Amino acid sequence: MSHLDVLIQRNTLFTMVCLVLSYGFMWFLPSNMPKTVSIIMMLFSLDTAKSLDTTLAVPPFDLYNTNIYPYFDFADILTWCLYPVFGYFFAYYYNRFRIRGFMIPVFILGCSLIGTAYEYLNVYFDVFQYRHWKLSYSFCVYLIVQTLCVLVFTKLKQHWIDQKTIH
């Protein structure tokens, strides 16, 4: 077995374990928001991540590869399936703990640290391979993206509350 085959197996196995654990955990969480809000947050997370990956990981920037190959393959599909569940967890815990005021930046900072730590594991297991990228850049991106997630979720929640008061 070649070194490349070992990397691919290690990469895919790590991603599959993460998928099973994260979706399994999500399945057993009690619902605390409408399914439509959950779906929108999951799609927003996927869309944001894929848009950034597409922008930063292809020429002219070409800062990193997702997975082993610089082209789309099955391992990419597995990786894409993780983005929605993390968007769900972000919204779920934001809502569950009723994050407000000064705690919003603290929550975003904490989630950005968790995201950066998870990305470090992805680098370790060869899911991401950096060229001209650094983990510290990811932390900054997480701060921005998770701030956007708070704004989107806040708007969705306000709409959801307005709909409940109308009916």
Describe the structure.
By secondary structure, this protein is mostly helical. The chain is built from six helices and two strands. It has a two-stranded antiparallel sheet with strand order 1-2. α1 (3-28) packs parallel to α4, α2 (35-56) packs antiparallel against α6 (135-166) and α5 (103-124) packs across α6 (135-166). The radius of gyration is 17 Å and the shape is globular. The relative contact order is 0.15. The mean pLDDT is 90.
Alpha-beta classification:
mainly alpha
The dominant shape is: globular
Percentage of residues in DSSP E strands: under 5%
The average pLDDT is 90
Estimated helix fraction: over 70%
The succession of helices and strands, N to C, reads HHEHHHEH
Helix segment count?
6
Uncertain spans, ≥5 residues at pLDDT below 50? none
From the alpha-carbon coordinates, what is the Rg to the nearest angstrom? Answer: 17 Å
Report the strand count.
2
